[in-house]
TrEMBL record:
It is found in: Cytoplasm. The chain holds residues 243 to 605 of 605 of the full protein. The active site is at 358 (for fru-6p isomerization activity). Homodimer. The keyword Repeat applies. It comes from Pseudothermotoga lettingae (strain ATCC BAA-301 / DSM 14385 / NBRC 107922 / TMO). This is Glutamine--fructose-6-phosphate aminotransferase [isomerizing]. It comes from the Bacteria.
Length: 363
C-alpha cells in the first residue's frame, strides 16, 4: 500500500505519473530546436537516407507504433510499415540488408517481438528498440536502445509506458526528419517542450470522467471510433476497457462503420467517440450522427474549442488542447481513466486483471 502513495491502485498512480514520465523522456533530448538522441549517432548516415521503416510491437505498444506511423508519414516521405509481432514473425519479412526495424516493447521481454527482431536481424536489419526495462532481453539484442525512463510499471495494463512511448516516438520521428533537413519541424519541437505543462490539463478532468464511468459501467458492449490520429486512441481505449473491466469493446476507424459494425449499434451499445476539433471533425461528426440515429448513447472526447458536440453527445469529456499531432498523447488519460473507473466501480482489481500477464514471455 505504501508504494501506491495514497492511490487506490497502481494503475491510477501510474496514470498520474504520466506528466513526470513525459519530462523524463524529454529531458536532455532537445537542444536549440533540435532533437538530440545521442544513442542514434551510429545511424546518422542511414537515417539521412531512410525511406522505409519496419515497426513491430504487441498490445498497447502496437498502438504507439500506429501513432508513430501516422505522424512520421504525415510529416515526411518516409513509409512506415507496422506489424503486430506475432504476425510479422511468420511472414516473408521483406527486409533488405542495412534496413532499420524499430521494436517497441515496454518490458523488452515479449516473446513475439523478440522473435521478430531475431528474424529481421537474420535478414540484415539493424534494430532500434524502444523499451522501459534496462537490461531486458530486447536491449541485449538491439543495435540501439532508446530507454523510456518511465520507472517501473506495476499495473498489468500499460498506461504511463504508453504515454512515454508516444513521446519517445515523436522524438525519434523528428530526429529522422532532422537528419534529412537540419532545420526541420522546429515549431513541433517547441510544442514538445510545452507538452508537460499542457498535459497536466488532461488529468484535470478525472473526477468528471469518474462520474461518467458510473453512468456507463453496466453496459455490456462499447464501440470506440476515431479517424486519423484519433484511430489509434480508439484502439487503445477499447483495449484498456476490455483488459480491466471485461466489457466487450471494439474499435474501428469511423469510416468503416458502414461496412458492418454499425449493424450492431442500438440503445445497448454506446459509442465512445474520439472527436477532436481537427481536419476530420466534420467527417467524425457525420459518423456520430449516424450512430445517434441508431439510438446509441454517445460518449465523446473532444477539445475545449468546440461546442458543436454538446447537443449531439450524451456525455462529453473535454481535453484542453489544439495541437492535432499531439492529440494521441493528450487524449490518452481520458480513455485510461474511463477504463480504470469503470473497472473500479464494477469492484474489479484493475492492477491484476484475470487471464493477463504483464509480459507475455511465451508464445
Ligand atoms: C501484455 C501486457 C500489455 C502490453 C503487451 C505488450 O499483453 O498486458 O499491457 O501492452 O503485453 O507488452 P510489451 O512489454 O512488449 O510492450
Amino acid at each position: 500500500d505504501a508504494q501506491k502513495s495514497g492511490y487506490k491502485h497502481f494503475m491510477l498512480k501510474e496514470i498520474f505519473e504520466e506528466p513526470s514520465c513525459i519530462v523524463s523522456v524529454l529531458t536532455g533530448r532537445i537542444k536549440d530546436g533540435r532533437v538530440v538522441l545521442q544513442e542514434l549517432e551510429p545511424f546518422e548516415v542511414s537515417l539521412k537516407e531512410l525511406q522505409t521503416l519496419k515497426v513491430v510491437a504487441c498490445g498497447t505498444s502496437s498502438h504507439a507504433a500506429l501513432v508513430f506511423k501516422y505522424f512520421l508519414e504525415n510529416m515526411s516521405d518516409v513509409t512506415v510499415d507496422v506489424d503486430v509481432s506475432s504476425e510479422f514473425r511468420y511472414k516473408k519479412p521483406h527486409i533488405k540488408p542495412g534496413s532499420i526495424m524499430v521494436a517497441i516493447s515496454q518490458s523488452g521481454e515479449t516473446a513475439d517481438t523478440l522473435e521478430s527482431v531475431r528474424l529481421a536481424k537474420k535478414y540484415g536489419a539493424k534494430i532500434i528498440s524502444v523499451t522501459n526495462v534496462l537490461g531486458s532481453t530486447l536491449t541485449r539484442e538491439s543495435d540501439i536502445v532508446l530507454y523510456l525512463n518511465a520507472g517501473p510499471e506495476i499495473s498489468v495494463a500499460a498506461t504511463k509506458s504508453y504515454v512515454a512511448q508516444l513521446v519517445m516516438l515523436y522524438l525519434l520521428a523528428i530526429k529522422i526528419i532532422q537528419s534529412k533537413e537540419s532545420t526541420g519541424k522546429r515549431d513541433f519541437v517547441d510544442k514538445l517542450l510545452r507538452l508537460p505543462e499542457v498535459f497536466e490539463n488532461s488529468l484535470k478532468g478525472a473526477e468528471s470522467i469518474h462520474a461518467i464511468a458510473k453512468k456507463y459501467k453496466d453496459f455490456k458492449h462499447f464501440m470506440y471510433i476515431g479517424r486519423g490520429y484519433g484511430y489509434p486512441t480508439a484502439l487503445e481505449g477499447a483495449l484498456k476497457l476490455k483488459e480491466i473491466s471485461y466489457i466487450h469493446a471494439t474499435a474501428y476507424p469511423a469510416g468503416e462503420l458502414k461496412h458492418g459494425p454499425i449493424a450492431m449499434l442500438g440503445p445497448d451499445f454506446p459509442v465512445f467517440s474520439i472527436i477532436p476539433y481537427d481536419s476530420l471533425f466534420q467527417k467524425m461528426k457525420s459518423n456520430v450522427i449516424e450512430c445517434k440515429s441508431r439510438n446509441a448513447k454517445i460518449l465523446a472526447v473532444t477539445n475545449d474549442e468546440n461546442y458543436e458536440l454538446k447537443e449531439l453527445a450524451d456525455d462529453l469529456i473535454y481535453v484542453n488542447t489544439s495541437d492535432e499531432q499531439l492529440y494521441p498523447v493528450l487524449m490518452t488519460p481520458a480513455i485510461q481513466l474511463f477504463a480504470y473507473f469503470v473497472a473500479d466501480e464494477l469492484g474489479l482489481d484493475p492492477d491484476k486483471p484475470r487471464n493477463l500477464a504483464k509480459s507475455v514471455t511465451v508464445e
